Amino acid sequence: MTLGPRSQSLQQEREKYVPRGMASTMPGFAAAGQDATLTDVDGRSYIDFATGISVLNLGHNHPKVLAAMRHQLETLVHSGAPVMMPEVYVRLARRLCEITPGAFAKKALLLNSGAEAIENAVKIVRQATGRPGIISFHNSFHGRTLLSMTLTGKVSPYKQNFGPYAPEVYQVPYPYEYRRPAGMSAESLGGTAVAAVRDLFRTTVPAERVAGVLVEPVQGEGGFVVPPPDFLPALARLCRETNVLLIVDEVQTGFGRTGRMFAIEHSRIEPDLVVVAKTLGGGLPLAAVIGRAELMDATAPGGLGGTFGGNPVACAGALAIIEVLLQEKLPERAETIGGMAIERMRSWAERIPSIGEVRGLGAMVAMELVKDRASREPDPQLTTAILHRCHDRGLAILKAGLYDNVIRLLPPLTISDDELRRGLDILEESLSAGE
């Protein structure tokens, strides 16, 4: 892709001043966004199927969200919750407790990012139980801080040579249907994954030393891996049997993305703690841990918090985002978007053999690309080439997966049918160009 003059100039400055470890999937530099359109500094527009990695479920610059942020900006930008808590912090905490699944008293802690919220969720369950161990899953992603990176189940590019990693973290396989072990039936996959946790208690760390199990209801960076329907309920039962707390990472799946306000609603489970971020802040840094009141209160005053956690402007925007999601029935819209996308993508798979699988939940949709369907050997080079073609044609889109061979779709839930079709047309053209 040939960069425009302004982007070329900025690229030179980027190479001089920004570390190469801070990589971007797309070339160029963003200047503006509106609804489902992202525009770069040279005026080139893109249909946005990335939404800042599922941060903008309401699209760019939703008027109700902007109005709430502007009003708060003119009233109070920062007081620091550890100094004097902003009133909007309390209002958002209450709203989060009201909408998060769980028929029990809850409390909510506001923070800056998903990784920070994961770290605090671990602090909370360790303090509440007096146990050190945390279990997470292969192919997961939970953040880039030391502990959240340790909990992440993928080495490249996240772990590199950043160790030594945090202790008392144990990992087991996630039920990945497309890549299940040879000879294993799809019906037994979820039960086998839960049995791996049970075996871990027998072979590696006793349940009495484990504070919590951390799981994504759909793996995000792992390639939009949707587990079998029996997996999460069985995992929740095992946690109850062993008195181990269940932490669900809804950072990418939350706030309507999967067709429900929270992905765990599909499984009808009630986790002890839920971690949210991304769309909650609508582009501003905001995250939360919502959990059982008695667990959230286990930490003594001063043990939780942070200078910027629960920033008033971000909180005001979050309250507006929640109401827009509910009033405009955007979780239901996610089902429609996902259905349209999956139908198109499965029709492509009938004639394009490199599409190994199309999968998704709600508007969290992906396809896994392979060199051939018999071996299911991943094809990351083809995946990257298709992304570049999409970018050249005006579609902002991302990849994911353990093997970097999954193209994922994260369109805003406010996207029109026409924009969605045009974006899918670009993706189809980009797929077919290499045939």
Description of the structure:
The model has no long low-confidence stretch (mean pLDDT 97). It is built from 13 helices and 15 strands. It has 435 residues and is α/β, with parallel strands linked by helices. It has two domains: 5-61 and 329-432, Aspartate Aminotransferase, domain 1 (Alpha-Beta Complex), CATH 3.90.1150; 76-327, Type I PLP-dependent aspartate aminotransferase-like (Major domain) (Aspartate Aminotransferase, domain 2).
Fraction in helix? 25-40%
Strand order across the largest sheet: 4-10-9-8-7-5-6
CATH superfamily of the largest domain: Type I PLP-dependent aspartate aminotransferase-like (Major domain)
User: Any guess at the CATH architecture of the largest domain?
Assistant: 3-Layer(aba) Sandwich
List segments where confidence is low: pLDDT < 50 over at least 5 consecutive residues: none
* Count of beta strands: 15
How many domains, in number, for the residues? Answer: 2
Largest sheet: 7 strands, mixed
Radius of gyration from the CA trace?
21 Å
| Structural class determined from secondary elements | alpha/beta
Indicate the proportion of strand residues: 15-25%
Overall body shape: globular
Number of helices: 13
State the name of the first-level CATH class of the largest domain.
Answer: Alpha Beta
SSE string: HEEEHHHEHEHEHEHEEEHHHEEHEEEH
In CATH, the topology of the largest domain is named Aspartate Aminotransferase, domain 2
Give the end-to-end Cα distance, rounded to a whole number of Å. 20 Å
Q: State mean pLDDT (0 to 100 scale).
A: 97
